[in-house]
Amino acid sequence: MDFLQTSIDGLLFGSAYALLALGFSLIFGIMKRINLAYGSSLLFGGALAVWLEPFLGGGALGLLLVTVFGAAVAGIYVERLCFSPHLGKTGTMASMIATFAIWMQLDEISSQLLPQRTHGFAGIDIEAISFAGIILRSDHVLHFWVAVLAIGALYWTLYRTRFGLLLRASADDPEIAYLLGGRVGLLGVATFAIAGFLGGTAAFLILSSDGQITPHFGLWSTFKGLVAMMLGGVGSLPGAIVGGLLLGFAEAHVTFYLGAEFRDILTFGLLLLILVLRPGGLMGVDVYRTGRLATERI
Q1: Residue 245 above 80 pLDDT?
Q2: CATH of the domain at 232
Q3: What pLDDT is recorded for position 103?
Q4: How far is residue 202's CA from residue 204's CA, in Å, rounded to a whole number?
Q5: Residue 135 φ/ψ, nearest 5 degrees
Q6: I need a labelling partner for 238 at 20 to 30 A (CA). Which of 28, 68, 120, 230 fits?
């Protein structure tokens, strides 16, 4: 029963990691670049929500709306400053270095919004669910269902709408997207806005579950999102989901059996093992193989 309880807890919490990884994978899949300022964008959204709460009120719903809005706005800010000026293949390194600079800037702004360093973050008060001897934390169940809805909405947008067709076309070749009638610049903005929405939702779920926010949340979410994405497969959206669930599952068992002090040691050890045995992640190999074959045809 302990193993089953721990496994369920890990998978439910891992759904929030999956949302973080989806934001990273979406940006990498479209732009072919890593956004190092992603976690800081989420921190800014959460810090802005806490700072505005005394003026706007609204409780948990107000925190959710402001966190998602702030993360999306910060994401668009990163895209305009770091990615839009460096759209060519030669700008890969320049854009990554630029995101590191914005990372520091957003962290400093967020620190000013959180003068006490540790601030309370209101959650949704729902009673725990008990079923057949298994106790499910209501906030973890909420993580899971919100993740399912967000993933479903993202899938429908990408594969059932013209906008999604243009996004996928721009990921393969921006010129094709342009010929199909898409404006590549606006598609980049939309990509970062969607990633900000996904990440902001994940940030709210995690912060409300913890009941607090600190300036370290940006670095923490960057590490967790990157590790989950790389475990599942760089550039693979299904891989991001698998990686997030796997990370949550592994961390829950290590915390239960060995203690919380070993959690991050296992996280990075698992990442190293996956990259050694299966470079590209569990589901990212096909992405690299497709790109290599396309290059060979050219």
Answers
A1: yes
A2: 1.10.3470
A3: 92
A4: 5
A5: -105, 125
A6: 68
Q: What is the residue range of 15's domain?
A: 2-294
C-alpha distance across the termini of the chain, in Å: 55
Q: How far apart are CA 243 and CA 196, in angstroms?
A: 19
The torsion angles phi and psi of 131, rounded to 5 degrees, stand at -145, 120
CA distance 213 to 43: 8
Return the number of other C-beta atoms located less than 10 Å from residue 174's C-beta.
18
pLDDT (average), residues 90-104: 82
Residue 181 structure tokens: 């009638």
CA 292 to CA 275: how far, in whole Å?
A: 19
| Sequence-separated (6 or more) residues with CB below 8 Å from residue 120 | 50, 211, 212
Residue 134 backbone dihedrals phi, psi, to 5 degrees:
-100, 130
Mean of all residue pLDDT scores within the chain: 83
Counting residues of the chain whose pLDDT is more than 90, the rounded percentage is 24
Looking at the 3D structure of the chain, how many domains does it have?
Answer: 1
Q: What is the pLDDT of residue 44?
A: 96
- Give the Å distances, CA to CA, from 38 to 34, 146, 181: 9, 20, 29
CB under 8 A, 24+ apart: contacts of 58-65: 59/122, 60/122, 60/123, 60/124, 60/208, 63/121, 63/122, 63/204, 63/208, 64/201, 64/204
Q: Does residue 298 have a pLDDT over 60?
A: no
Phi and psi of 129, rounded to 5°?
Answer: -105, 130
